[in-house]
Structure to design on (807 residues):
């Protein structure tokens, strides 16, 4: 994004502000000097001598101050500052979207629900103290229920970051059945990393001992993997020069840390990414489109408030696609149970209703709208995504 | 990408040979990461345009300080000058004149200190405006996830401040080291007024109005009028009728020209008293009028600083949930990764529109990855569709055999057909 114009406008304000305050300083300085000089003159006059003397000094001071250029400059320098001060916000309005609430629907967003979501977000981010403070201030005491599982997750993950796998292994073996059910091989991956650590730091004998105890149960289910790990024994102490050096890559630790977090959240019934983070990120991506839409819908605010479906599609990144959606390229209808997607013999896919329509217009076969193939309606197959 | 040093005595030399291999892995991962945000970077510039408030608020604060400093300097200087004026025309003795001028000198010294402090604050605020510009400029593909994470925290602090969860806001800002990127000090000003209104005191609110008179007038704000009305109602409630009438003459009458109807309605309470059952007047005596004043103040405050009237969090959540909302989110098999699989998010999204889908998006049942031209969909003989990646992997592990995970049907990889989705 081009910020130069905004930056220039900001610099201009700062420059004038500094100038203005130094002018102020000068003016005060000078007034002070004049008064002090008058004071000196006064003090040097003899108290007993004539009264008009000090009157004259005061009158003199008065005219001096009146004629002082600095005082009138005070006003003019402030006036010079006015220009940049009003220009900067105008520049901001030009370079940015001045009102991002234009597409906001005036619906009651339940405060209690939002607060609950925020509290669990803070806990899952490991911000336990902030989370407690928030739960207390917002009066969401029951939100603290999520705290202790996330504390456990955070501790285990922290330990992994400092290369201590014990807590993670303990957790994995305690939840071994559940992990298996969800198709995770986290336990094996943890043992593999531990085994490599031992092989690298404690030598072959210890590694072999470890493998017999902890890797052998996986021998039948992960034959190839275990064979490879056992072959590593030949390179004890010089694994870095072996064909298996990638086992030492630090990224393995990072990846396994993520994998652990994913599985832990999964067993908690939570997603890996914070749902609040995902929703807000989707909002940041989607909002520009909505704001553009509102420019077109000006004057139809009422309609907007009651719409059941957005009138325009919002293109989000891959990471926000959670559902399979099939839109028939001919009718633009979304597939349903009654109007399912059908595979034609050429490999192109249309919704059933579109195929029915196309086949009615010709007697037996019809031409695929996307390729020259002649299609027989009865040979189309229903697809399940 | 940062590569952690290896602890446990794995010295750099021992590890040196491993470096090329691990570097290769790291750079592969980095390349994969870089490919993904390509689309994101295109969204980035659009999303930065949403940050108006982020730059506007510190600027308004800065401007306010400049104006206030200048006003006080001007006032003091002209006070000193007119003090000199009056002394020259008075019958001061010499000693009187000496002590008079000495007091002016020390007054100027005080002003000088004040000015120095004032410009120190101005400079800090200028720096803050600058820091925010720099922060916006620092967003790029390499730090996008961290930058977005900070953005979420900024949005949360904004929410906390607007909800008066001041301690949480300060804690979150401090632990995340984003104090320059949030507006905690701006909200100090609001806090004083809000807490006073909650205690049924209007003085700080009136002072705030006086401070911002010209801007409030420009936006045709009714806030001060409402405050005056409330004070009047309180006098009537206390049965202080004479004072109420005097008050009305002094503070309400000037608003007569623009708000006559409301003025009359409130003045009529004199006849009805606080025990009235008449609905039109009863409502004026309700305690919730004070809550309304708090809400009204917040609106004026947000407007003055160029903030959105709704918390940023609500705005982004609404947009995000609308964009994510599909009828499939409400089915039992909605995946956990979808925020709308959770009851609380479904509740928030209940009154929002569904997204519109113009193109097919096929998510592989096995890998949960999007199927596209790089990872096209393949059809099993039973019509079930999975991604090429998932099926290739399955075939590789099972000697070319494919088992449909949803129906258990077994077939050969060679039995699969391609599907073209446009
Ligand atoms: Zn075709």
């Amino acid at each position: 994004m081009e910020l130069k114009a905004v930056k220039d406008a900001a610099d201009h304000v700062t420059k004038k502000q500094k100038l203005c305050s130094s002018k102020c300083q000068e003016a005060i300085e000078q007034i002070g000097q004049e008064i002090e000089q008058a004071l000196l003159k006064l003090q040097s006059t003899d108290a007993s001598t004539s009264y008009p003397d000090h009157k004259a000094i005061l009158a003199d001071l008065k005219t001096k101050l009146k004629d002082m250029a600095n005082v009138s400059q005070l006003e003019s320098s402030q006036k010079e500052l006015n220009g940049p001060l009003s220009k900067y916000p105008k520049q901001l309005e030009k370079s940015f979207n001045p009102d991002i609430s234009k597409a906001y629907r005036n619906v009651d967003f339940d405060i209690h629900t939002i607060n609950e979501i925020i509290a669990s977000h803070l806990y899952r981010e490991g911000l336990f103290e902030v989370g407690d403070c928030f739960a207390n201030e917002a009066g969401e005491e029951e939100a603290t229920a999520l705290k202790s599982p996330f504390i456990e997750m955070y501790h285990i993950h922290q330990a992994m970051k400092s290369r201590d796998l014990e807590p993670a292994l303990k957790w994995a073996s305690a939840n071994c059945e559940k992990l298996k059910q969800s198709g995770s091989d986290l336990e094996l991956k943890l043992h593999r990393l531990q085994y490599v650590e031992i092989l690298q730091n404690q030598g072959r004998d210890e590694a072999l001992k470890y493998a017999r105890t902890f890797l052998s149960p996986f021998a039948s289910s992960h034959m190839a993997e275990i064979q490879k790990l056992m072959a590593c024994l030949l390179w004890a102490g010089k694994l870095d020069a072996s064909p298996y050096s990638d086992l030492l890559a630090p990224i393995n630790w990072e990846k396994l840390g993520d994998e652990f977090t994913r599985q832990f959240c999964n067993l908690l019934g939570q997603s890996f990414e914070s749902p609040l983070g995902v929703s807000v990120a989707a909002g940041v991506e989607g909002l520009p489109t909505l704001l553009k839409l509102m420019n077109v819908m000006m004057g139809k605010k009422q309609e907007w408030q009651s719409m059941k479906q957005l009138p325009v599609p919002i293109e989000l990144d891959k990471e926000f696609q959670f559902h399979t959606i099939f839109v028939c390229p001919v009718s633009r209808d979304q597939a349903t149970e009654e109007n399912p997607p059908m595979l034609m013999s050429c490999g192109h896919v249309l919704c059933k209703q579109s195929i029915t329509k196309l086949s009615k217009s010709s007697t037996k076969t019809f031409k695929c709208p996307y390729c020259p193939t002649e299609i027989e309606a009865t040979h189309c197959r229903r697809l399940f995504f | 990408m940062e590569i952690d040093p290896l602890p446990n005595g794995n010295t750099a030399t021992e590890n040196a040979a491993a470096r090329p291999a691990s570097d290769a892995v790291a750079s592969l991962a980095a390349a994969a990461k870089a490919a993904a945000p390509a689309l994101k970077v295109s969204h980035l510039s659009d999303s930065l345009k949403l940050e108006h408030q982020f730059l506007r608020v510190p600027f308004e604060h800065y401007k306010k300080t400049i104006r206030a400093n200048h006003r006080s300097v001007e006032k003091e200087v002209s006070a000193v000058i007119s003090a000199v004026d009056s002394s020259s025309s008075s019958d001061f003795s010499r000693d009187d004149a000496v002590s008079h001028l000495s007091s002016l000198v020390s007054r100027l010294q005080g002003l000088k200190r004040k000015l120095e402090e004032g410009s120190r604050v101005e400079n800090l605020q200028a720096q803050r405006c600058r820091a925010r510009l720099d922060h916006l400029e620092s967003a790029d593909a390499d730090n996008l996830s961290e930058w977005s994470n900070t953005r979420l925290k900024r949005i949360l602090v904004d929410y906390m401040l607007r909800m008066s969860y001041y301690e949480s806001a300060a804690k979150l800002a401090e632990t995340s080291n984003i104090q320059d990127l949030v507006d905690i000090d701006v909200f100090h000003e609001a806090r004083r007024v809000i807490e006073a209104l909650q205690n049924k005191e209007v003085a700080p609110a009136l002072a705030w109005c006086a401070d911002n008179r010209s801007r409030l007038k420009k936006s045709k704000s009714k806030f001060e009028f409402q405050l005056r009305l409330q004070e009047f109602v309180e006098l009537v409630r206390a049965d202080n009728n004479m004072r109420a009438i005097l008050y009305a003459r002094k503070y309400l009458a000037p608003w007569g020209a623009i708000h006559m109807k409301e003025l009359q309605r409130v003045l009529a309470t004199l006849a009805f008293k606080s025990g009235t059952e008449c609905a039109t007047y009863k409502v004026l005596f309700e305690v919730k009028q004070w809550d309304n004043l708090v809400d009204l103040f917040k609106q004026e405050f947000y407007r003055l600083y160029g903030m959105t009237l709704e918390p940023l969090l609500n705005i982004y959540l609404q947009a995000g949930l609308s964009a994510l909302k599909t009828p499939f989110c409400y089915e039992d098999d909605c995946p956990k990764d979808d925020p709308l699989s959770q009851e609380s998010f479904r509740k928030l999204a209940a009154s929002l529109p569904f997204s519109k889908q113009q193109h097919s998006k096929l998510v592989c049942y096995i890998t949960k990855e999007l199927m596209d031209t790089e990872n096209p969909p393949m059809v099993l003989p039973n019509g079930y569709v999975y991604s090429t990646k998932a099926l290739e992997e399955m075939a590789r592990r099972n000697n070319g055999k494919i088992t449909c995970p949803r129906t258990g049907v077994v077939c050969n990889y060679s039995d699969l057909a391609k599907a073209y989705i446009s």
